[in-house]
Amino acid sequence: MNKSTHSPDLTLLSRYIPRTPSIGSTTVTHEDHVHLSFGFAAPSLFPLVELEHASGAAIRSHGQEALQYAGAPGPAYIVNWIKERAHRNGIDATPNHILVTYGATQGLALAAQLLLEPGDEVWTEAPTFFSALQAFRLSGAHIRSFPLEADGLNVELLEQALQQARTAGRPMPKLLYTMPTYHNPGGVTLSVAKRHRLVELAREYHFYVLEDDAYGELNFTGELWPTLYSLAPERTIYLNTFSKIIAPGLRLGWMIAHPQLIDRLRILMLGGSTGVFTQEIVATLLQHIDIDRHLEQLRTHYREQRDVMAAAIDRHFGDAVYYVLPAGGFFLWLNFREAIDTTSLQQRALDYGVSIVDGRSFYPERDVHHQLRLCFSYCSAEQIEQGIARLAAAYRDDRAAELGEVALTALEYHNGA
Amino acid sequence: MNKSTHSPDLTLLSRYIPRTPSIGSTTVTHEDHVHLSFGFAAPSLFPLVELEHASGAAIRSHGQEALQYAGAPGPAYIVNWIKERAHRNGIDATPNHILVTYGATQGLALAAQLLLEPGDEVWTEAPTFFSALQAFRLSGAHIRSFPLEADGLNVELLEQALQQARTAGRPMPKLLYTMPTYHNPGGVTLSVAKRHRLVELAREYHFYVLEDDAYGELNFTGELWPTLYSLAPERTIYLNTFSKIIAPGLRLGWMIAHPQLIDRLRILMLGGSTGVFTQEIVATLLQHIDIDRHLEQLRTHYREQRDVMAAAIDRHFGDAVYYVLPAGGFFLWLNFREAIDTTSLQQRALDYGVSIVDGRSFYPERDVHHQLRLCFSYCSAEQIEQGIARLAAAYRDDRAAELGEVALTALEYHNGA
């Protein structure tokens, strides 16, 4: 049986599969490390007791059907729940507009498969969510990106590019991927005026908008943003997820799109219904939980965590950095005024016991960038304080090393800390 | 908000998406219908009590981690369980050889994405599993199929085709999809001699074998079959699932392949870990269930159901049909001696209150076929008796209608039955 050590035939792989699998950016394992890299929900706010109750009740009430392929009442209940919730956010959907997916991640993969053929154009923000970039790369599409500003995507540059491409007869985008509200990693939100302009462009230049609204419910200000879907339902494929509002381990999300698109997305699922057992449990949970109260707890908690992080950054970094204070979501995008290499800083920060994600991971081109992503949702307030302090020490060390000065080594810092 | 009634722009769809979504073959809704079409596990044998216990225990013990992205001890436990189980079936795998998927269905989609580009050749059996055909069609590959015999795939014809393609300089297959053991829908099993020949061909002609072993554990005879993976691990991508041995609604399956392939398959999952909450529950279940005893119950039950179905067929159809008695699995593939159209019979059978799947659904070409699939796993013995009697009546009616004779209408039959 030692034939399993033979090498497989890699010449047969699709040309869109990377030849060298990349290593994830978070390989940290030390117990005392602070993980400001993890874009995770706060585990202390998972509704564990309610979920345990819901699991038992779902299995007792509907076990035989819930464990079969098609499921019991749960999947229909969830679709209806999504419909009602979407309606509150200005989205007019019927059950035929809704497809439950394995998280918003599967929504990205399905949208890419639905539209993109090798060589097609997909346009994104820069920075943007790395899993989206990966999904588009795997489809063989060509990615072009447009800068993110304090009020979201630079729609003016997008419009110029669309005009130029049309005039020059170059390939037009099939899809524009955007996270308009509480951007990952940028932390910014697309202004209302830009939202209207963006969907006008989608209509004028005949592309779909893939709207990732994963953080939309985590609103710290009470200010409401119209979804792009509500402005142009025929031009938008909308993604959302239970990962941020209940728990990511459930792996349940949803897409909202025109029924003619949903019908075709179902085909891509090859007859499999998304995790019906989990759906039955979540449906039971949703019947017994006060979701608005739960969301208020999440918003309050994450807002406080954001404030702790922002205060620590101001204290430790002062004028060396700038950022847009996020009005929701999980992430703070830190910009350095000096042109430092955050990939190098990321490595040094690990020596100091804090993980971050370098800017490069969020850009299609993967050049050097003077930006990095910090997540304030997962760690405790104390850990955030400690993590930012460690990051500042790593930064000073990095700068000192670059300037040729004698600096404390990470080892000395650790021993003395 | 009534813009949602606007038609979406279908010109932007990938050309590999069907223009007309097909309607599933099972649209039956009558309560008194017998569903011999459903390829479902027997719900009475789901370990519901154990699962309820496992859900509670998993949430209490590991809830916070199990609901996060990466999960708690469950995913590692399951990989180890798969490793041990595979070892008993002659497969030498490490955890790096194993990827947990959303059922074997996701395994099909991932294998297609890993290897197939538009225009590539993928070769299959005929008949074959319809979801596999769908996955290959969606990748834009060209499908060529080879007949299934009483001892599985006609390997001789396959070899001739490989020789001819090589000689003529035509495109060679990248992938051969096969279900060697307890075939869906064919009910047949590939002989040991053919297994050896098939993997020799894979080596000689440089293609991968995609081995679907979904029914492998449901063995009615005690006779053991070497997996193709055990014979040529470097040339095989192996699929299996918990759907048949625990419950389909969990949507958990696995792939076994060389670590260099598994690394790349992980990329296709875009950083999402397959249903970690469900994995934690199933891991807890596997620690508390006697799986061998459970499998013996399943095998005994399904063997008895198969015998009930075979006896009913013999009684009602006699010499009008022939079939290979399945030595395992869920399905009996019924061949009519006359060249009847089972798509027409499928419709008439619905009028008589029984659902079946026509032969056409299992062939790449979708021509008329004189075969149909019956499933003996889902219905009770009484329902199977009744279903076969109804099917025989529908068949007689169908034949009589074709021969121009006066026949009982379905309505009269129902009223009199």
Automatic annotation (TrEMBL), chains A, B:
It comes from the Bacteria. GO terms for molecular function: transaminase activity. InterPro entries: Aminotransferase_I/II_large (IPR004839), Class-I_PLP-dep_aminotransf (IPR050859), PyrdxlP-dep_Trfase (IPR015424), PyrdxlP-dep_Trfase_major (IPR015421), PyrdxlP-dep_Trfase_small (IPR015422). Pfam families: Aminotran_1_2 (PF00155). Gene3D superfamilies: Aspartate Aminotransferase, domain 1 (3.90.1150.10), Type I PLP-dependent aspartate aminotransferase-like (Major domain) (3.40.640.10). The keyword Transferase applies. Its cofactor is pyridoxal 5'-phosphate. This is PLP-dependent aminotransferase family protein.
